[in-house]
Amino acid sequence: MNQNNGGISAFLKKKDIEISLKRYGIDALGAMAQGLFCSLLIGTIINTIGTQFHIGFLTNTVATIAGSDYTVGGLATAMSGPAMAVAIGYALHCPPLVLFSLITVGFASNALGGAGGPLAVLFVAILAAEIGKAVSKETKVDILVTPLVTIGVGIALSAGIAPALGKAASQVGTLIMWATDLQPFLMGILVSVLVGIALTLPISSAAICAALSLTGLAGGAAVAGCCAQMVGFAVMSFKENKWGGLVSQGIGTSMLQMGNIVKNPRIWIAPIVTSAITGPVATCIFKMQMNGTPVSSGMGTCGLVGQIGVYTGWINDVASGSKAAITAFDWIGLILISFVLPAIICPLINMICEKLGWVKEGDLKLD
């Protein structure tokens, strides 16, 4: 038995198959979010720019496939499944034949997963990739065997579990959104805090929001929580990190502070409390909704994607007739929640933490 276990361990090591939370829950999930960014999110941004600035090349049909018309942004959006799967495969260190085969797997799992397609892609792509890696270069006809196994396993899993996974993710997201509509104050706090924490942790808040199709008031609370972390950390650490830190954290990622959080978890108090304040302000006072692409809910101020998502949602709502117009109150709410409140509240709370001796000079310094 021990010899068998040793043989299996040696084989998995040789194939670089690491069954761990870090590999699947951090590396793969984070890569999936990048795949979404480079397809669905970029496609949405391109469409928005084209519509708002009346750019014909971006709004006109550039391709008609199986009777469906596609714009430039539409083509990018249509490739979200393959982009996510290939990104996951890249994170799992897949050899070329496995990586390229995941294009088909991603398309199938995303299509069959429906609204919860990203979660289906995550599970199916991981399983197909690892099985593909296991058979890769084990035969003399690798160019046939590896793609056949990877695609075959991926399609079978897509048909078998993608619809159920997608439906489950969609139902969880619907439940969160329903609860937020019903209890905007409490759920505003809960969603804002949890998604904000996920943003700073080495996992992907964007992928989580995408997998759950998190939009509406809950999406607005998620945006608020992410902004509280990013802008909060950026401003309260300005004395130590100057303009470089302000930009890298404010429109980059608050994940840069993870090393400092491990050393002194109390530096996280101010951003978390800030998100608990701005979340219900978003849901109860400004009733801010994020009705753009769900992945935008978990992006915060990263490249201003959260704000672009909210704006895109406004445009969609106006076009559908569910919203009369974009008002000054909408803009004031978005600016306050995204930038002003985190920039004021977070440093003030951190000052209290410093007075109590919980945070000291140098704790927020980035390497």
Q: What are its keywords?
A:
367 residues, mainly alpha, two-stranded antiparallel sheet, 2% strand
Describe this structure as you would to a colleague:
The protein has 367 residues and is mainly α. It folds into 2 domains: 14-166, no CATH class; 183-355, no CATH class. Helix content is 74%, strand content 2%. It contains 16 helices and 2 strands. A two-stranded antiparallel ribbon has the order 1-2. It starts with a helix and ends in a 12-residue tail after the last helix. The model has no long low-confidence stretch (mean pLDDT 92).
* Number of DSSP E strands: 2
Strand order of the largest sheet: 1-2
Q: Structural class, from secondary structure content?
A: mainly alpha
Strand content: under 5%
Low-confidence stretches: none
Described by the principal axes of the CA atoms, the overall outline is: globular
Question: What's the number of helices?
Answer: 16
Helix content: over 70%
Largest sheet: 2 strands, antiparallel
Distance, first to last CA: 47 Å
How many discrete domains?
Answer: 2
Order of helices and strands: HHHEEHHHHHHHHHHHHH
Average pLDDT, rounded to a whole number, is 92
Rounded radius of gyration (Å): 22 Å
